[in-house]
Design goal:
229 residues
Amino acid sequence: MSFITNHPINNRWPASDTSKLQLYSFPTPNGVKVSIALEEMGIPYEPHLVTLSDSDVKSPEFLALNPNNKIPAIIDPETETALFESGAILLYLSEKSEKFGGNTPTEKARITQWLMFQMGGLGPMFGQLGYFSKFAGAQIEDPRPRQRYVDEGKRLLAVLEAELSTRDWIAEEYSIADMAIAPWLRALDFYGVKGTLGWDNHPALIAYLERFLARPAVQVGLNVPDRDG
């Protein structure tokens, strides 16, 4: 038995090639961070579609890998590492590949700083804005909850606009921080809030997202796993 085949998740999402890193994910902003990173780093991997339904993410098999019942998660047979949380996975992959994570302590710290900016600010705030704009929260009559996230979303965009007006990538060189940030900027279109946040008034961000989406590895990673199975 290999490390992968011995894991409970293999009973529901069996690995075809147990020598490859296994990705359990869905193409949300958090999910595609990891598929994009794997494509950019050239790490062989096998994707498994884990939908956002309770029947998948709250199944005993998935909970055995991620007790927090969120995608994405990975198993790396080479190091016998099972890991969840997208930011932690990005840090792990950059160390494994020695790519896109910085070469000096200062570079690593700068990249990690912006990765944490996304994990602690951009993702949670934009996710809540999406909830109150596109999903069930949009039915709430009280405008105050939504306005809180609109205001914070505008503030976060202003931070990024100022930083990216002087450089192409958030930490100077293209890095895992960009792989984390840009998918959440792209999600604003899906949530239907670009106008609300004044997206067109952020030329540096517009150019930044265009640069990101033009990368071949990004174009592949955005559609992994195939949401149609």
